[in-house]
Amino acid sequence: MTIKTPILGLLPEELAEKIGPPKYRADQIFEWLHGKLAASFAEMTNLPKDFRDTLEQTYLITTLNPVSAEKANDGSIKWLFETPRKDAVEAVLIPTESRRTLCISTQVGCKFGCTFCASGQAGFERNLGADEIISEVLSAERLNPFERISHIVIMGMGEPFDNADNLLRALKTLNHPSGRGIGKRRITISTVGIPKKILWFAEQNLPFELSVSLHSAVDSVRTSIMPVNKAFPTKELFEACWKYTEKTNRVITFEYILIGGVNTDETNASALISALKGRKAKVNLIPYNPIDEYPQKRPALETIRGFEQKLIRAGIPATVRFSKGSSVNGACGQLRLRHIEKKQ
Ligand code: SAH
Hints:
- By secondary structure, the protein is of the alpha/beta class.
- It contains twelve helices and 14 strands.
- It folds into two domains: 5-60, DNA polymerase, domain 1 (Orthogonal Bundle), CATH 1.10.150.530; 65-343, TIM Barrel (Alpha-Beta Barrel), CATH 3.20.20.70.
- It has helices at 12-19, 23-35, 49-58, 130-143, 164-175, 195-203, 219-225, 228-231, 234-248, 266-276, 301-313, 334-343; strands at 5-6, 59-60, 65-71, 77-82, 88-95, 100-103, 107-109, 124-127, 151-154, 187-191, 209-213, 252-258, 281-287, 318-320.
- The protein binds S-adenosyl-L-homocysteine.
- S-adenosyl-L-homocysteine (SAH) is lined by residues 116-117, 155, 159, 190-192, 213, 255, 257, 286, 288-289, 291, 323, 331-332.
């Protein structure tokens, strides 16, 4: 059996090169796949039948099978998708009044082992292909056809910069005007904070939004919850961040999960303030979303608001984000974790 080439990760010009002239054929196929969400070549009725048959034999249209869908009372939907290779990946649709944001995964599992995050608990399996990343969006669109996705956040399972080539290929495809056409500024990449990758990203000249998961500006605290900080301490991380803001003139959003008794005290607030003061930076404060298997706790509301006020008084833009979807275990990796446990 010949292995078929995944077609979803190919941009129109690449597709044109592969299938040959006439050039409009590639555009037609791209539009069927990404604009009209075709899941089979048979649907592409403006292509000659024998050409459709050849495509069918050569290419794979990656589809993801929704194993489960959980709707939370705030309207968010969390899907567990099964890939053609039978791995489980998560995607969450988060609707607000003006946006339909889809949170997507880039890897099956995660290598980074942050102590508060469920994604890494079962270890790392593999990178998702560009076709699979794209397919998360296309599958969510098919399952919810009346609600076109307006924004994408790369905050699901995995570390996007650990699978950077596939991710950027997927995002360029999703941004393409003859496909989904999701604007670059409506796409946010969230990273655990790998300095050389942040510098590399700055050179790409792609105005996607960048979020950095900081969670503490105190090295000992950050290392205790994010093992990556041992290899790349905050000094190195911030150096890369400020080179990025200088080069791109863009603001970085720092994600800061507030974990009771861990990173909410005066020392942590002052360290954060001195690190970000005068920089192109804002802070998203995320009250910790408790995970059954983990001991950490969400701090009292008073602590959460107090921390926010300290930042604001110091002139640092900060907003508390109560994570949506928590009633369906919306925090990263939780659904997959339960799925794996059920299977075992
Ligand atoms: N690896 C990337 C993207 C995945 S995590 C990164 O580290 O940014 C996306 C966001 O969800 C991160 O800010 C992460 O720290 C946060 N997150 C993970 N577990 C959480 C939990 N239990 N409660 C609240 N936020 C969580």
